[in-house]
């Protein structure tokens, strides 16, 4: 597909703000250009690279980062996914000082937000982005004036999340139905949760935990008019599924397509 400009660039150009998209921040010419901006502060949001010390040292009041978790919980690249996978009732955004070590800098402010029972990464991320933007705008004047202080993180309470890989979406046999239901929401939109159905991936976009007789993981049955998969504990009803190249189907549409004859089991990771 064609390269799309990021939404930030589109917004900046509409406001007449200069956009500079360097390949790397290690380039001396790039660093020179950043110095020439004569900035009070740099702000980083969802930027996947560690900034070189030479860049961190440029702005007068340092570099701030908008991170989508309540630090020191969920340092790392996937805090929104991690909070849903963990079944946390709330998460939030931290505004922090950037240091060389990932997400380890002192925190200026934290703002909490509920994780709703049906939240996916698709619904939670834009809410946290808006919250983080508001919080940043709220704290910047005090930070620039030197009135706001930052607090070091409690190193004893640190948890980490990892970079999500494509295969993480494969629902695993050792998961409980509760964990699998969280994974369906956490991995929506990417990489998408799935089970194997026959030879093919069956993407799962919506699910719910249901009561059923204990069965070995991967067993398929119709429960409460939905195809359901047994996990290590409990059953997961598949409420919205998608075959490769097909459109998203409700449980009823999927069962109708199978003429009520489900395969005996689904392949779990």
Q: Could you please describe the fold and organization of this structure?
A:
A hairpin with a 4-residue loop joins β8 and β9 (about 235-240). The chain has helices spanning about 5-15, 30-35, 55, 80-85, 120-145, 175-185, 250-255, and strands at about 40-45, 65, 90-95, 105-115, 195, 200-210, 220-225, 225-230, 235-240, 250. Helices cover about 25% and strands about 20% of the residues. Strands 5, 6, 7, 8, 9 and 10 form a six-stranded antiparallel beta sheet that branches. It has a four-stranded mixed beta sheet with strand order 1-2-3-4. With about 270 residues, the protein is α+β, with helices and mostly antiparallel strands. The protein starts with 6 loop residues before the first helix and ends in a 12-residue tail after the last helix. α4 (about 80-85) packs antiparallel against α6 (about 175-185).
């Amino acid at each position: 597909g064609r390269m799309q400009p990021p939404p930030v660039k589109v917004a900046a150009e509409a406001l007449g703000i200069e956009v500079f998209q360097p390949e790397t921040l290690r380039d001396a010419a790039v660093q020179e250009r950043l110095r020439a901006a004569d900035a009070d502060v740099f702000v980083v949001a969802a930027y996947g690279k560690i900034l070189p010390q030479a860049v961190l040292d440029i702005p007068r009041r340092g570099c701030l980062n908008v991170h989508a978790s309540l630090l020191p919980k969920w340092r790392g690249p996937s805090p929104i996914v991690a909070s849903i996978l963990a079944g946390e009732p709330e998460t939030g955004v931290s505004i922090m000082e950037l240091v060389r070590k990932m997400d380890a800098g002192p925190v200026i402010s934290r703002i909490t937000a509920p994780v709703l029972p049906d939240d996916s990464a698709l619904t939670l991320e834009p809410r946290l982005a808006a919250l983080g933007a508001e919080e940043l705008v709220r704290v910047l004047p005090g930070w620039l004036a030197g009135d706001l202080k930052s607090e070091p993180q409690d190193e004893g309470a640190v948890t980490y999340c990892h970079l999500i890989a494509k295969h993480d979406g494969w629902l695993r046999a050792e998961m409980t139905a509760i964990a699998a239901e969280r994974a369906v929401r956490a991995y929506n939109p990417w990489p998408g949760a799935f089970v194997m159905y026959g030879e093919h991936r069956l993407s799962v976009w919506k699910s719910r935990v249901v009561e059923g007789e204990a069965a070995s993981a991967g067993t398929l049955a119709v429960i409460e008019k939905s195809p359901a998969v047994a996990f290590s504990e409990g059953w997961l009803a598949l409420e919205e599924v998608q075959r490769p190249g097909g459109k998203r189907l409700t449980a009823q549409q999927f069962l109708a397509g199978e003429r009520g004859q489900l395969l005996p089991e689904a392949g779990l990771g």
